[in-house]
Amino acid sequence: MGQPLEDILRHPAIWRVGQLAQDSRQGIASGYAPLDRVLPGHGWPRGALTEILANQEGVGELSLLTPVLRRQSDEAKGMALIAPPYVPCARAWEARGIRLDRMLVIEAEGSSLLWAAEQALRSGACGMVVIWACRTQTALTYRALQRLHLAAGKGEALCFLYRPAHAASAPSPAPLRLSLSSEDGRLALKIIKRRGALLPAAVCIAPFPVHWRDTAAAMDAMVPAGAAQPVALRLPKLGTPAH
Amino acid sequence: MLWIALYLSALPLQLAQRGTKDERPLVISDGPANRPLVLCANPSARDLGVKPGMTAAAARALAGELIVLPRNPNHEAQALHNLAAWAYQFTPGVVVHGPDGLLLDVAAALKLHQGLPNLLVRLRREMLELGYHAACGVAPTPGAAWLFAKARHTGRAVRTCTDHAALADRLTDIPLDLFDWPQELLSKLAALGVRRIGQCLALPRDGFTQRFGKAPLLELDRALGAVPDPRPCFTPPEKFSSHAEFGFEVNDALALLFPLKRLLKELEGFLRGRGAGVQQWHLALEQSGRRATRITLGVVAPERNAERLLGLARERLARTQLMAPVLALRVEADEFFAYDERSQSWLPDPQQTTQGWHYLIDKLASRLGEDKVSRLQSVDDHRPERSWRRTAAAGPKAQPLPLLQAPRPLWLLRTPRTLLTRNGQPLCQGQLRLIAGPERIESGWWDGRPVGRDYFVARNPHGETLWIYREHRHSDAWYLHGLFA
Fold first, then answer.
1. CATH of the domain at B271
2. Residue B229 in domain
3. Do B408 and A95 touch (CB under 8 A)?
4. Minimum-distance CB partner of B357 among A78, A86, A185
5. What's the burial of A160, exposed, middle or buried (CB within 10 Å: 0-12/13-18/19+)?
6. How confident is the model at residue A12 (pLDDT cuts 50, 70, 90)?
7. If DSSP codes are grouped into helix, strand and coil, which group holds residue B367?
8. More reliable by pLDDT, A83 or B476
9. pLDDT digits (tens, 9 = 90+) for B380-395
10. Cα(A140)–Cα(B460) distance, integer angstroms
11. Burial A24-63 (b: 16+ CB within 10 A, else e)
12. Which of B28, B236, B298, B361 could disulfide-pair with B12, CB 3.0 to 4.6 Å?
């Protein structure tokens, strides 16, 4: 009697409370070791929708994906950015090792955004598709998300969807959902949903150079707590050439 | 030598019907304008009692909602010409025969097409895809093949004949009225009791020539292969232009897909014959009372697969508003590029991946518009707003530039945003702390857009990391230019 039960428990879709699902398929390493440790499959799930919920911009929400973007471009796979909120700074992306010749930037909104995303995912020509749905007026219904998820499965592609934080309460077919916030110059990732036990604590990663944080900390130290007057910034004298 | 003859009976009717699935009664009229006669009628018109030869007015009286289209010999000739160009993919020996037939010399092409039966099946199937149906005749001489095709059309059981020795025997029973001989000659022969080729050949040759002239006997000899039968070979045209008429008005752009598919299949055959693909083709929608709407469609790599081209056209037509009902459709292409045929393989093939990538780009561009799908390229300029540009989504790789060591944000704002200041300190959702910088960028004095800026990395109380600058000249004005996302 015990043997069949063990067999059932070995099924990848079943996990015990307090455990991480034993994903039969290896994920794609995110490039951040603390994050990989808490993800089923030890990386981003391939062929599935991953939701990233954030209200803030400039907290490292995109740096979260630069290692995997770099890896995709190293493997000469196609990538698509759909409805990015700003202009990607080509030099900065290249400095992160991301080659731009296989990266499509697609402007779309509303229903054509979902259409374009589905085409890119389904084609099998894209290894990774990143979608920004923060500004689109069309509501992302459960059905629409499910279509994206299934399309990602068909094309065996990584699919990341940026959404505003209030979407956390809406149901979603995505097997992995993360919510982002900034914590002292670092990026705090809270896993809202994963295949496995819920993780109460946030995972912190450092998307920016370490010395930036140090400078910030040093500056923090210089600002007296509760100072009524803002402390003057240490600005270099004008006209001093820095380069 | 081995010839396949394709006899397109009632070609005007086939042309009128290939653009539509519509089954309404339809006749083609011919003859004087004041008294047009029915030349041919489609099955639903024939069911109502319409017969070829009656006047159009009589046909209208029989069938209430009859569509009467006048015959257009120019369109027929053009269509036959296009069909010949399409058939050029099977063999270089294509001959246009009369107003309604093609002759293909396939002796040298049999091995390529894995034998005659396979070739015939393929020809018949692909012609149906174009919207044509033809009676086929196979014989070692073009004349005999043509007779067999016509005989098969009249309902005779004709077997294919590939053997020269058996040809005379097979031709014996073929009626003489299948030749395009004058009616007078045929009735004279009939009066003699000569109705079949066999009987005709049994007559003494000298007497036959004296009574009926040389031409009929020469034609008989050519069909039998006793005399050489040289035929002028068809030369494929430099441009492709094919046309489908509806006979009624089409109001829905997506209803054009059915005739378009047939025209694209024709284009595919044309391109196969040339070993080429197109990168650009035109679709003209001929509308009532207006100039034709011309749509140009492009693909990033040479393509000839009709299904793929149709898929792209579907996306394009879906966002096309028809200003007036469409009466006819024309597909044109005039520039051709070498095309690499892909082989079917179950191993992952980098070339196939590239084709999938190109097809994705084409598909996105045809629905969203070409300017909405692009790639980025870095430009060697220190000014951040000029350090990138958009390029075509598919194209050659750019020469890599040396990597920048200085911090650059992943996101750039399209135009820098002025920041509020308090006591000379920049604000962006709270007081900004400067955490790196300055980096001075001073450039562009030579092209009239000089910048002189000090860039800083700044962080606001919400933890957002920004890229801001101040101008040299107005040192108290601060701008937000990017986000370290």
1. 3.30.1490.100
2. no
3. yes
4. A78
5. buried
6. low
7. helix
8. A83
9. 888 888 888 888 888 7
10. 31
11. eeebbbbbbeebbeebbbbbbbbbbbbbbbbebbbbbbbb
12. B28
Residue B404 lies in a domain: no
**pLDDT score for A241:** 43
How confident is the model at residue A123, as a pLDDT? Answer: 87
- pLDDT, one tens digit per residue, over A114-128 is 999 999 998 888 899
Taking the CB of residue A88, how many other CB atoms lie within 10 A of it?
21
Q: In a 10 Å sphere around its CB, with 0-12 CB exposed, 13-18 middle and 19+ buried, how is residue B150 labelled?
A: buried
State yes or no: pLDDT of B125 exceeds 80.
Answer: yes
Q: Are residues B188 and B282 in the same domain?
A: no
Say yes or no: B334 and B446 in one domain. no
Residues across chain B: 485
Of A208-217, B52-61, B105-114, B461-470, where does mean pLDDT reach its minimum? A208-217
**Nearest CB to A108; choose among B363, B368, B475:** B368
Residues B308-318 pLDDT 10s = 899 999 988 88
CB B438 within 8 A of CB B454: yes
Contact call for B464 and A230, based on CB within 8 A: no
Contact flag A91-B484 (C-beta cutoff 8 Å): no
Which residue in the set A105, A182, A235 is minimally distant from B375, CB to CB? A105
Q: How many domains does chain B have?
A: 3
Pick the residue from chain A with its C-alpha nearest to B454. Answer: A242
Domain that holds residue B215: 3-24+65-224
Chain A from 22 to 61: CB within 8 A of any B CB: 56-61
